[in-house]
Amino acid sequence: MSMPFYVSPxxxxxxxxxxxxKGIARGRSVVVLQYDDGILFVADNPSRALHKISEIYDRIxxxxxxxYNEFENLRLGGVRYADVNGYQYDRRDVTARGLANVYAQSLxxxxxxxxxxxxxxxxxxxxxxxxxxxxxxxxxxxxxxADEHGYVAMGxxxxxxxxxxKDRFQEGMxxxxxxxxxxxxxxxxxxxxxxxxxxxxxxxLDRNREHRLFRRLPTARxxxxxxxxxS
Length: 231
Hints:
Structural class: alpha+beta
Number of strands: 10
Radius of gyration: 18 Å
Strand content: 15-25%
Number of helices: 6
Largest sheet: 5 strands, antiparallel
């Protein structure tokens, strides 16, 4: 008679975590960083159809790495949550913190209760009236939440990208400076890597706009920002 196969809960959790981490590291990176007029999102993403960066609500955006169908699920849930709460209560009641809590619960439950955890990492960011009131929350596959300041790198060789960002990031950078810092940091994963505007997905939450503060930057605009002061 064969012995039943037993795995301790600790081992099971560790295996799930390793599985999720590997899946996330296989993806291409995304960086989120503050600049003087708001929050910049840059993804190494040649696809025009599958977005890694999206608007969730008036002042709130979402960035993700990992399995597209899984983070797309989370994005849609976030949009529904924001719409329902904004409609039932007040648009100002929809915050990045509230959304981060909802995501933390969902991811935590999926991680604990299912055999396959989500292979995703996400950032929920909300732009404030000034840089001091910007909010950036990073959520990992098991529902952990970190309150970030300045910059975040996720996916791919995130540590190499984060180190490069640490060296380049400064408070109050212009959009062009922040975009260059982001792209150079994404390239730091591989010495031969050169990222062109057409292989990037770029968006901002611009605190100086009216109403909807999210906008995507077209390739031509990204190109001209990257070319600024490089004569």
